[in-house]
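pasting for ref
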Amino acid sequence: MSTKEKTPIILPSETWAREFDAKLLLACCLAERGFPVYVGCKNTIHYNITSFPAGLYLAKDFRVSSDLMFSIMKRLGFTIMAWDEEATLPFDQDEYHTIRISKSAFANVSAFFAWGPINQETLQNAPYPVPGPVYMTGNPRRDMARPEVRGYFNSDVEALRERFGRFILINSNFGKLNHFVNQEVVRPGDVDPGLRGNPNSPKFEKKGELKLELYKHFLKLVSELAARFPDKQIIIRPHPSESHASWKEAGAGYDNVHVVYEGHVYPWILASDVMIHSGCTTGMESYLLDSPVISYQPVTSEQAADNLPNKLSHKVYDFDTLIEMVEEYAAGSRTLEKSAGLDALITPYIDSQDEHLASDQISRIIDEYETSGQLRASSAVHSKVIGWASAKVRAAKKRRDWANPDHKSNLAFDGHRFPVLPLSDVSASIERFQHLLSRFDGVRASKVQDKIFLIEKT
């Protein structure tokens, strides 16, 4: 690499429908500053990490599942920065520190990008030494809902309305209870595999019991809505990690029920008459998109009351009231309730609401690190050899699990979360950003391999 070239940056995306568009926007902002940026499937990047030039890896979390990979990348000479994709979920600090932070992974992060003040404070109060600054930047996923950016989805919205006509959208978030991979299912009394053997707290167990009851209500809701609104389509969009089988069973016998997990959730929200959820981050995203949203809460709890997406939605506690609200939204006689008071609820959770894009905030900070030489990590030869060997062993073990349907690394689940993308789609997405924002002249994509693309300014 020439000394005039900037440090290469890797932006891994675990779930294409949730993260990829936002990370592509960030990649464009970084490429505009002269960085070569690799963006694509996290698993594919990890399997091939030794093929990439050492640079900056921008991680999506710092959980126990990242311990080994972070150790490998540090040995290979990577600098690691991170944010947490799940930072807006309603954890108290103790829960967050237990579930979302691994001491080992956390220690390998050089800088953190917080969604907002609450996330920043939670990270700064971690029970382990904080290894780097915690910058309050907001998040690229928030950028995608901003008025000047959301037009990115216009053609997708039109296509959905052409395909389904008027529809009611149900967004589920029962990943632990209804996981795509059987061995990852966690029901009350089970130990969460993600906690690596740590026992569940009584508080965790109680939350699981309430969540299971809520899940049963939502399964029942599918046929009830289908029967009450035969002239409308009912779209169930499962959480990215969920199995579709139970939802298909719940809608069996109704021609107007469709279980569909395709594309980014934003166009589905924007195209729907109303979106129904309970405690899902899409409730907050619907509010940010100025789209009608109902939080159905037939099971109440302190956690549900404190949940931000629920607070920003029209809260409904029984089926009859839900039907009434859906009818009013569908008829246009009720619109999304917005207010300065509700807007103020978001501020502690998400920064960069009105001024600079979060993607620009993050890019600016990374560029400052580049200018000061802090992105050029050094690693001894023997350390690189160990890192290279560890990466190869890890990749071999993962490939062994590809054919195992009960393993979370199986190819079916991997393809479900991140499909193969044609270069033409990625190039078209960049062109959308160029048109909307009048920026990114000369920024182009090239295909590195299936699911990985290089974004750079030519």
